[in-house]
Write a sequence for this structure.
């Protein structure tokens, strides 16, 4: 009786931790604005196809490699093949790149908790938009909020994830979910909401090109926390009794559910208020306040809860990113946990200060023609995560013995996985090929060719030089 309860408890703990990593700014901030920029429904459809045929399979692969090796990213991959150590190194680099901009947006969410009580919702729609623009380009203020967000990460990762964050997440993640449903209902009942629904549900392929596919693939990996070994690390803590496939399906389902819900909460309102869907990264910070403003006095209360929940969702994701770097330093480099966390935090702070300032004070970089914020974003999710996912698939399909995989996934034959052969075929052949094709067509169509080539050059250098990593 007691044993059963323990299993149950650890099971929920793992699903929550993995879902906590997956569900974050990627779902509520990034998914809606990418959908807006990439023409709506067609983007969503392509994204869903990638999630189902690539995302779930790569997640199963990451869980399997992690649990089978019992090691975090770099060590796990190295334990199968020295030649592929660079895939682990790419993962560590991706974690730095993502943490070069993620805390900036996390800081915006924190700032908006305060904005919610200082009269944001009594402004006109235009005023709400101007407030956001002035805030993120303002220099000092967003930097301070970013540093507060990053400091929270440092505190949590230094102490270990168990304590406060897990408890906060258990309350606030369901709260966020319920709030999104509530906002969706309000949004759907606004005058002119139908147009927004059509935008996300009536496929229009007229604007789809290679760049759309690349954006959808990058978003699938980013949102599911795949392609850099975060899920390998989580899998390494997983009990041998857990059903890997079931866990992957649950985590993916939750993640996609939250993203779609965020879309349904926002697009009807965007069209009802006559806003531009392709306005970029500011979308959630402008539309959601407009919906709250329209509710009158109670809106401020919803605003506070929403932005607290958003900040916590961001935090449960960013700690998993920081943990990838920290666990590498601890496991492979014998660094003490505290030192690893502080050192990593300082580097990430410098990167994120540059990213935040690139939205106002600094202009675009020469050659790349994008700012630091965009540089980190494009490099991580359009280059490193996709190629990382591709190499993780290659290691799983070509290096690891098929029977080892079968035994690990089926818990020594005690749980069934009827689709094992199909999964293995996808991992071995289809996914590496599909990612390569998307990457090639993406490079052709994307405007930021210099950034893409720069990223690929780094991967090539890592592949050549990282064999000596340990
Ligand atoms: N999935 C998170 C989000 O959507 C971000 C994230 C956390 C992530 N860990 C990751 C992305 C590992 C890629 C890899 O907000």
């Amino acid at each position: 009786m007691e044993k059963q309860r323990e299993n149950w408890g650890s099971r929920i703990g793992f699903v929550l931790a993995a879902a906590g990593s997956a569900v974050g700014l990627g779902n509520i901030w990034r998914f809606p604005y990418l959908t807006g920029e990439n023409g709506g429904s067609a983007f969503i459809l392509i994204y869903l196809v990638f999630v189902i045929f690539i995302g779930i399979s790569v997640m199963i692969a990451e869980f399997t490699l992690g649990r089978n090796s019992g090691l975090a990213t770099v060590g796990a991959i190295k334990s199968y093949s020295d030649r592929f150590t660079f895939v682990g190194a790419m993962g560590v680099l991706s974690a730095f790149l993502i943490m070069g901009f993620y805390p900036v947006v996390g800081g915006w969410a924190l700032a908006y908790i305060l904005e919610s009580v200082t009269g944001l919702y009594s402004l006109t729609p235009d005023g709400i938009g101007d407030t956001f623009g002035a805030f993120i380009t303002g220099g000092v203020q967003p930097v301070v909020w970013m540093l507060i967000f990053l400091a929270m990460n440092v505190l949590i990762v230094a102490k270990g994830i168990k304590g406060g964050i897990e408890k906060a997440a258990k309350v606030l993640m369901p709260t966020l979910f319920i709030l999104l449903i509530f906002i969706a209902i309000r949004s759907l009942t606004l005058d002119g909401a139908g147009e927004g629904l059509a935008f996300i549900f009536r496929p229009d392929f007229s604007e789809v090109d290679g760049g759309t596919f690349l954006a959808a693939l990058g978003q699938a990996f980013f949102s599911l926390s795949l392609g850099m070994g975060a899920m390998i690390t989580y899998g390494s803590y997983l009990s041998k009794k857990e059903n890997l496939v079931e866990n992957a399906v649950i985590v993916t389902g939750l993640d996609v559910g939250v993203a779609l819900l965020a879309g349904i909460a926002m697009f009807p309102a965007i069209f009802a208020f006559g806003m531009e869907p392709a306005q970029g990264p500011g979308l959630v910070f402008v539309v959601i306040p407009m919906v709250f403003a329209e509710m009158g006095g109670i809106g401020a209360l919803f605003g506070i809860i929403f932005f607290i929940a958003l900040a916590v969702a961001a935090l449960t994701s960013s700690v998993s990113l920081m943990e990838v770097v920290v666990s590498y330093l601890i496991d492979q480099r014998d660094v003490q946990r505290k030192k690893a966390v502080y050192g990593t935090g300082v580097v990430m702070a410098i990167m994120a200060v540059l990213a935040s300032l690139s939205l106002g004070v600094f202009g675009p970089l020469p050659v790349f023609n994008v700012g630091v914020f965009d540089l980190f974003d494009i490099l991580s999710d359009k280059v490193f995560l996709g190629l990382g996912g591709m190499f993780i698939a290659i290691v799983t399909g070509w290096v690891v013995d098929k029977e080892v995989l079968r035994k690990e996934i089926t818990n020594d034959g005690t749980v069934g996985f009827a689709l094992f052969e199909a999964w293995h075929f996808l991992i071995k052949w289809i996914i590496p090929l599909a990612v390569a094709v998307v990457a090639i067509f993406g490079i052709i169509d994307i405007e930021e060719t210099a950034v893409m080539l720069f990223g690929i050059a780094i991967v090539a250098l890592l592949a050549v030089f990282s064999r000596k990593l340990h």
Notes: The radius of gyration is 21 Å. The pocket of tryptophan is lined by residues 21-22, 24-27, 98, 222-223, 225, 228, 230, 317, 320-321, 385 (CB under 6 Å).
